């Protein structure tokens, strides 16, 4: 299946889930998945919330998923990586993902920063800072617990990939050390108690620190996995960068 066809299918699926961008509980499934799904916008950030497939609701941890970019919709992660439905390059339809993270957790996919995907952009300015992103996410989580109070006691994890190597630690730090604009939330203490960890996959954090170790890493890989010339070539590439 061609890349542009995949993107069209993805867009159509997302539009199907949004159903007018209003909050929708128990939205129609995409692939016959059994999880209850909720969509909507909180603090101007669009989200899709899938309840746990297997673990009872009051025991399932709540996982916030953030894709990178900057500007990549987290629904890409939902549809192509770890969500209940997967779209493959060999198919024009979505299939149930037997390895979905909803097997173990409630999953919340957020389009962020503002202006990404179906999240509304700021009206007062076009630029944004990572500190703004963190505050927006804290405001989203507070609003999420207002809407879904039964989940406020569940363990909380913040996960993401790629440029979420910036988003995830900034978000967690803002939850632990709330900026003044979100300091008075009734959920603040409970969130700190529930926050059990964060995770970053293939994260982009500090390019200068990461890329400086590529050659050394390659040189230490066991024989047979890389050609003998690979470490030297990687080092030349690093110097060139």
TrEMBL record:
InterPro entries: AB_hydrolase_fold, Peptidase_S10, Ser_caboxypep_ser_AS. GO terms for molecular function: serine-type carboxypeptidase activity. Pfam families: Peptidase_S10 (PF00450). GO terms for biological process: proteolysis. It comes from the Eukaryota. Keywords: Carboxypeptidase, Glycoprotein, Hydrolase, Protease, Signal. Its EC number is 3.4.16.-. Residues 1-20 form the signal peptide. Coiled coil: none annotated. The keyword Hydrolase applies. Belongs to the peptidase S10 family. PANTHER family: SERINE CARBOXYPEPTIDASE CTSA-4.1, SERINE PROTEASE FAMILY S10 SERINE CARBOXYPEPTIDASE. This is Carboxypeptidase. It comes from Aphanomyces astaci (Crayfish plague agent).
């Amino acid at each position: 299946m061609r890349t542009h066809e995949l993107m069209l299918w993805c867009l159509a699926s997302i539009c199907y889930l949004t159903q007018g961008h209003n909050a929708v509980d128990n939205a129609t499934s995409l692939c016959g998945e059994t999880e209850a799904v909720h969509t909507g916008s909180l603090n101007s950030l669009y989200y899709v919330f899938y309840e746990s497939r297997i673990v009872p609701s009051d025991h399932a941890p709540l996982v916030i998923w953030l894709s990178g970019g900057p500007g990549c919709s987290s629904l890409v992660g939902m549809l192509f990586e770890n969500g209940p439905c997967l779209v493959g390059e060999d198919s024009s339809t979505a299939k149930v993902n037997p390895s979905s993270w909803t097997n173990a957790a409630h999953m919340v996919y957020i389009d962020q920063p503002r202006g990404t995907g179906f999240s509304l952009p700021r009206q007062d300015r076009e630029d944004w800072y990572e500190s703004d992103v963190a505050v927006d996410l804290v405001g989203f989580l507070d609003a999420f617990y207002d809407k879904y109070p039964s989940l406020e006691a569940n363990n909380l994890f913040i996960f993401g990939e790629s440029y979420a190597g910036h988003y995830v630690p900034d978000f967690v730090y803002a939850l632990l050390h709330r900026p003044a604009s979100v300091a008075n939330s009734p959920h603040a203490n409970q969130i700190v108690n529930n926050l059990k960890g964060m995770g970053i996959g293939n994260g982009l954090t500090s390019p200068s620190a990461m890329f400086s170790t590529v050659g050394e890493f390659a040189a230490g890989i066991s024989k047979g996995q890389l050609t003998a010339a690979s470490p030297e070539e990687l080092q030349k590439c690093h110097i060139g960068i």
